[in-house]
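ZP: hey, is the zinc ion complex queued? I don't see it on the tracker
AM: it wasn't, my bad. submitting now with these inputs:
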Amino acid sequence: MDNFHRLIEINSHKEQQYKYQLFNWRSELYDANDNTYFLLAKFALLNKLKIEQVNEFFNQYFSIDIFNLNLSEHRSLKYLFSIFSNQAYIQNNLITKSSGDLNILGIPLIQDYYVNTRHQEKIIRYCPECIKSYKLPEHASLKYLDRCLFHNVKFEIFSCNHRVIRLKERSVKCNINFIRIFCPDFPTPQTKKHNVPSQFSTVLNDLDKWNFSLKEICDKKLGKHLHTFKNMDCAIPEQCAHFVLVKELSLPESLREFTIPTNAIRKINSLSISNNSGFSFFENFTYFQFVALPVVYSSFCYLHRKKEASFIQSLLSFFDELKLALINKTEKFWYLHENDGIWTSSDSKGLYCGVLIHDLLIDWLTELWLPPLYTSIRSRRLQYFNNFHLMNEDLVKSASFIPVKSNISENKIDTLFSFNRVKFQEFAIPNFSSEQMLALDSMCDELVKSYIHDARVWLNRIECGEKPDHFPPRSRALLSLQKVQNQYRLFNIQID
Ligand SMILES: [Zn+2]
Ligand SMILES: [Zn+2]
């Protein structure tokens, strides 16, 4: 036990306890499922050691940096604690394998054990039952779980104060503070036996298995992320990814009751946008080309296929609906003064010098989808046409569009646009088959419907008496284009 002499030495300078055994540990403090940083915190408190001393000890003799444990260090530490506890080492699958990083519909999600178990935010999630036995299960750090697998009790949150704790020391130090507050009697041995059910190994097993096949399941079900057409404004991306994880990625039945509730999600559907129509250009599209595609394509559809393209029809009938609602309106309505973002209502005494709320919606959707209708004289107009031209150029580069007037030079466009009488003109037309157009139509349908839904939700709330405080309406859906096996799919996740 040479290594431990060093610890005795470290401690003896401080405490003058040279003759006594200084290395304390009790077997009931060890649990194979404990968060490793929590084990270290218990070790430090039990031995009245500063974390620098704990680190010095583990670092010098076991080459373990306790502040930032990698996978093998997690394993080694748990192994050491099992020896200290005179217990068999239970190989924990959660730390022996790693599922790698996931990309859930464009949202990166780190699933590595050593990253997840590290204390990264200002909170520690814990089980109110486990903590009574001085335990912090490592699965409490998996945020798609809502409750403790051992007690079926909802995890609670400890918020810590980081003002005086250095970043790298937080994982251990915050756990020390957490124990001090929640277990004021620690390390007094517990007289009362707490409820420690043991029949949950199957659930843990299922969690291990699922957790580590996640990457594979994710690749199979969600495929490769190509582009996010619409992002959700009302939910934290990470939380959104957890919803998808639980709902879409083959969660074992046994785990279902322990995961976060996903009823906030109204729907998850995926639209197959090409069966054999071969959008090979999608593969090489840049971010900007994806951004340009709906804008340029929809302007073409407005001019040439208004009748066939149902998304154009949806937009136009929504505009009619808005105009009609306005005509029939008797109660107050709102105006936005766009320069200073002030909202005034029709029943206020002042002049309404802003843009009417219904017109705002029409202009907003027009700008996104129907460039030819964009006729109001605003400073954005020139900028819009310039952008539109650049978008066309981008798509021409991808060969998915063919230029209409290839001889227009940059200079000519500038002079053309500097006169306000400019009429919308096409720069490029699609280089697709009619089958591909139909596929793109269905994609645009999904997108347009989502924008209209956002607009309706926003407008409804205002009509119910809420004062508007933002514009445009917040996005309530995530729409992501994925390549799943050999198919392109548009995933649509909508929250209420
Ligand atoms: Zn518990
Ligand atoms: Zn903290």
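AM: back. The pocket of zinc ion (ligand 1) is lined by residues 127, 129-130, 148, 150-151, 153 (CB under 6 Å).
ZP: great, adding it to the tracker
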